[in-house]
Specification:
- This is LysM domain-containing protein.
- By secondary structure, this protein is α+β, with helices and mostly antiparallel strands.
- The protein folds into two domains: 147 residues, Beta Barrel (Elongation Factor Tu (Ef-tu), domain 3); 65 residues, LysM domain (Membrane-bound Lytic Murein Transglycosylase D, Chain A, Roll), CATH 3.10.350.10.
- Helix content is 16%, strand content 39%.
- It has a six-stranded antiparallel beta barrel with strand order 1-2-5-8-7-6. Strands 3-4 form a two-stranded antiparallel ribbon.
- Helix 3 packs across helix 4.
- The protein starts with 7 loop residues before the first strand and ends with a strand.
Length: 215
């Protein structure tokens, strides 16, 4: 697949379902993405005031939007082999009876990944070979933030009452291991600290990690 030298790489990691642990590479160009977060306020009218009183109601889920770019012209292959990997994330996984939960990981950042589901994807094919096979595509992607329910988190954390060992597999990350072991990717620092891992992206296949209990 040809790579635009100005494009930036990101990854979507599948957290559950039949393809749990798999990663899908994303090339996004222009090299930018947008993050949106909002709050909901209720307007309470009070006689004698020129403007209503604002009462905070709730925070709304955040979302990331970006443009992905794929080009298989030089390879002469069907670009849908790549775009289908993303669009399939909209489908119901038979193991969990819902589309999978995901992590969006951008570049080589050590920041915690964005926990999300794929809310929307629009694919636009912009070039075809002489046989009519698409070889270039742009995808408009919207990722919607998700949070693990409090009851589920408590149930999973309480079951992690003893230290154990875990051998890393291809595609593993500290976030996916924390999600698998604790039910919460935000607890990845427990694993990093227990194994003296300073760079969370330095995992290699076959590493033996201590998975500490969660108090």
């Amino acid at each position: 697949m040809a790579v635009n030298p100005k494009a930036k790489k990101g990854f979507i990691e599948i957290l559950n379902g039949n393809k749990k642990g798999e990663q899908i590479e994303i090339l996004y160009f222009p090299p930018e993405y947008s993050f949106e977060k909002s709050n909901t306020f209720a307007e309470i009218s009070i006689p004698g005031l020129e403007a209503p009183y604002l009462q905070y109601v709730k925070g709304n889920t955040g979302s990331i939007t970006l443009e992905a770019f794929y080009d298989t012209y030089e390879a002469g292959t069907d670009v849908r082999d790549f775009t289908k990997q993303l669009s399939d994330l909209m489908n119901i996984d038979p193991k969990i009876h819902a589309p999978p939960n995901l992590h969006f990981i951008w570049g080589m950042s050590s920041q915690e990944p964005f926990a999300c589901v794929l809310e929307r994807v629009t694919t636009r094919f912009t070039m075809f070979n002489s046989d009519g096979i698409p070889v270039r595509a742009r995808l408009s992607i919207t990722l919607k933030e998700f949070k693990i329910g409090l009851n589920e988190r408590e149930r999973v954390v309480e079951s992690s009452d003893r230290t154990k060992l875990y051998v890393t597999k291809q595609g593993d990350s500290l976030w996916s291991i924390a999600y698998r072991e604790y039910g919460d990717p935000a607890l990845w620092r427990h694993i990093a600290d227990a194994n003296k891992i300073h760079d969370p992206r330095s995992l290699e296949m076959g590493m033996e990690l201590v998975i500490p209990s969660v108090e």
